[in-house]
Design goal:
The chain is an alpha+beta fold and about 270 residues long. The chain is built from seven helices and 14 strands. A hairpin with a 5-residue loop joins strand 1 and strand 2. It is globular and about 45 Å long. The structure holds zinc ion (ZN).
Length: about 270
């Protein structure tokens, strides 16, 4: 994964493995001026006015090379629900209201750029190639610890398979999120992760005294591998949102007073 500074000043991470336009935003290069949202906040309800959020969306979309009006970002509910969207969802979440809620979507539509919002949770982008190597379907997933526990990674792969993908031609990029270094949880959260996922969680968790440190990025990588995605087709950002508040928003580090990151993908 590469950190790119676009001509308009926006910094974002790009994964070459996906083979299509994609980007994980940082907080750098936007027009938000509040201390906690400066400067590329991409969500409403965090203190910026609508005009500022939409200007940031335009800057980020331009930097990544997608049409801002094609971006779809539906209300997220920490579930493992993944929807299949068609072109009618275009613009929902920013320019149009939505009555759908979910934490992931997949599409064959070239007129959509699916996106998820995070600030410590794990964003996952997936692309599926046809036999000729062209990307024909994409998916995005919001995997916090609840989504991870509900195995949203597998639900995302299943959604792409339902659209005609074969798992050995799916590529994945796991974006910047809270790292094992900073994600300290108590027994109840650890138990909830283990109850659905067992050994996959145990193998990716450190324990110090009464505290547990699950590595959500590695857990999601292993879940993708278990459902047939090749390990060499998975790209993982090493960056921790809570360690690097200079370039990211972190819900945990900020005590909840923060802007929001966006991760987007598009077929063209
Ligand atoms: Zn950290």
């Amino acid at each position: 994964m590469r950190l790119i500074t676009a001509e308009n000043g926006v910094q974002y991470l790009h994964s070459d493995i996906l083979g299509c336009p994609n980007g994980f935003s940082t907080r750098v290069g936007g027009v938000s001026t509040l201390d906690h949202t400066a400067s590329l906040n991409l969500a409403r309800g965090r203190g910026d006015d609508d005009e500022t959020v939409l200007e940031n969306l335009k800057l980020f979309a331009d930097a990544v090379g997608v049409d801002p009006e094609s971006v779809v970002s539906l209300p997220q509910i920490h579930s493992s629900k993944v929807l299949i969207l068609d072109g009618s969802a275009r613009g929902q979440g920013y320019f149009l209201p939505s009555d759908l809620e979910c934490d992931g979507y997949a599409t064959l539509s070239r007129s959509l750029s699916p996106a998820v919002k995070t600030a410590d949770c794990v964003p996952i982008l997936l692309s599926a190639r046809d036999a000729a190597g062209n990307v024909f379907a994409v998916s995005v997933l919001h995997a916090g610890w609840r989504g991870t526990a509900g195995n949203i990674a597998t639900r995302g792969v299943e959604a792409l398979v339902s659209l005609g993908a074969t798992t050995d031609r799916i590529c994945a990029a796991i974006g910047p999120s809270i790292g094992q270094c900073c994600f300290e949880v108590d027994l109840d959260c650890y138990d909830a992760l283990c109850s659905g996922l067992g050994e996959t969680v145990e193998l990716n968790t450190c324990r110090k005294g009464e505290k547990f440190y699950p590595d959500l990025k590695s857990i999601n990588r292993d879940l993708l591998v278990q459902c047939g995605v090749k390990r060499e087709n998975i790209d993982i950002s090493e960056l921790c949102t809570a360690c690097r508040t200079d370039i990211f928003y972190s819900h945990r580090r900020s005590g909840g007073s923060r802007g929001t990151l966006l991760s987007v993908i598009s077929i063209n």
